[in-house]
Each structure stands twice: as C-alpha cells, then as structure tokens.
Write the structure tokens for this entry.
Amino acid sequence: MRSTLHIGLVINPLAGLGGSLALKGSDGSQIRDVALQLDPAKRQRAHDRTIRALRMLDDLNLSVRFSCWAGDMGERALRNLDCAMQVLGATGDGLTSAQDTRMAATQFCDAQVDIIVFAGGDGTARDICDVVGTCCPVLGIPAGVKMHSGVFAVSPEAAGEVLRLLAEGGLVEVRAQQVRDIDEEAFRHNVVRSRFYGELLVPCAGEFLQHTKIGGREDTLLAAADIAAWEAKCMAQGHTYLIGPGSTTAAIMQALHLPNTLLGVDVVRDGSLLAADANEDCLLRLLADAPGPAHVLVTPIGGQGHLFGRGNQQFSAPVIRAVGLNNIRIVAAKAKMAGLQGRPLLVDTNDVALDLALCGLRTVTTGYDDHILYRVSTM
C-alpha cells in the first residue's frame, strides 16, 4: 500500500481584505459588510496565495490527497490545481464565517488527516486552535492582515516547501507554537493589545541537528540520554508506561534508575517497576488494572524501520488497542531516522485494520524537547 500525505485544507476567503482597505484586520462585521460590496476579483488574496503554496508540490511525483471544504474555502483552489480531493462539507448561504472554519477543522480531525493547512491570519489560527489544540499538526499559509502567531510559514512558497518535505518523507521538526491575536478595535485606535490564545503543533523545516552535535555528526549515546531525560520528565503520576525493547528505550529505564530488559517489555508506574520482560497476557492484565492512562514507548529497528511486529510482538493488537493509538510515543535519534533515507516507519501487527489506523504522520521524539514528524506505513 502506497503512503499518502493526507492534507486537510481550509481557506478563509475574507483573509487579508482589511489590509488594502486600511481596516487593520479582517475580523468582525465591518469587513463582512465591505466584502459584500467588493467585486469577487478583489477577494482573491487567500485563494491566490494558497495556489502559490500548493504549486510547490506540482513538480514532484508525490502521493498527496486533500480533504477540503466546498467552494471558496478550499475546493475551488484545488480544482484549479487538479488535485485528488474529497469535499467534506459546505458553507451556508452568503459569506463564510468563523464557525465554518471550526466546522471544517472538526471534520478534518474526524477524517484523521495528517496535517491541517489553512490560509488566513491570526483570527483563522484562533478558530483552528479552538477545535484542534495540539492533537494534529497545523501549518498556516500567510494570507491575513495580522499574523503575530508563530504558526505561519514565512511565505506561501515556504509553506509549500514544508509540505513537500513531509510528502517526501524528510525530517521535519514539529514544535508547539503560540497562537496570538490583537484586539482589532483597539488597534484601530492606535492601541496594541496582544493576547495569548493557545498553542498549535507546527512542522518546522529547520536545521538537521539541534541539540546533539559533535563534529557535525550526532552522538547516538548523547542523543539517547537526551531522549531519556525528556521522556522521564514527561511521565505523569498514575500513568502506566510500557517500555519496549531497544537501546534508546533502555536509556529511559536508566534515567529512571530501574533495571531494564533490553530485548523485552518492562512496565513502569510512578517510578516503580511493575513487571520485567512482560508477555502479552501480563501486559493485558496490568492494563486492565491500571488506575489511569497507559502509554507505549517504542523505538524503531535501525535500518528497516519497523515499529511493531518485529522483535516486540508483546505489543500485540489487543495491547495496542487497550493503550490507545494516541498514547504511542515513538523515540529515536535523528541519525537513526535519517538512516531510513525517507522510507517510512513500518507496522505489521497482524491486524490489518489496526495497521491502517496506525498509518500517517506521527511525532517522533529525537532529543530533549526535540521532535520531528515522520510517516508510518504498512510497506
């Protein structure tokens, strides 16, 4: 089965209109009243900038598909680009609203897109943040008047380059970035009031090595120690952690000052070892009795990239389902990920439906508070 990058696209057709009209933004009823009087040809800013971004995918033989909202909120731009797409919903009569953006974001989450791409400004980012939070990566195509948030690419073409890297299987970091906005009414009276609204996970195509760099090459032991320190710091009271086999996960056990089964699965809660070298039955029993959420910490096999189904069959389909797909934490040094040369991480749980559910872009912890997005596939 060929991997595809599934993009949820939403465009705010009113984004940026207030700039040329000196309205200091495009939020509120005033811009809607003005937009109704504008020639449609003058309401093209967000549409045109979206096409500029997505055309960066044209010259590559990529497998990309889109989910979108009808008409000016995405469908029209994709039809101009002749892209594979599915229209998930439509607006009511008249101009689009913030509620339409929120509805689109909700549908994208339900459709389990790999990334939500939106064209707009800070107001649109707020609408997306209200629905998505940090459950799905998001990338903004800059099309608004106000763009104080850290969720936008520096240009439409830069947004397209990030998407191309994701589609090619490149190493792309993901970071929590602030969503901010200013009070437009106050700004129109020369008063700047910026407010923090939340955070979105944003793919950032930065430098290859960030935290662990020695002579231009990553030290794998130091990278494993950084990963272990971060994962140990993130462990919550009352949560159960299933630590899979491998040297990277062994470093996590070392950071916790607990004995480790290098080629087995150990179970940890509140800093104590509940089970060493646990089999499937033991894991299911412990999960059934767990007082709170559970998590799997797994590292791929170097070279071949298998996450599940090779050397860790204790993580059976029933175990993974009991833990939950959103509670799988993948850890690996960037050097190991780069060694895959763009090939996806692989899953083979002997449960076809589960394998398909595991596919898509997933976050991989590669250092201390250092993360990338990487594709998981069945082949």
Observations:
- Confidence is low (pLDDT under 50) at residues 18-26, 207-217.
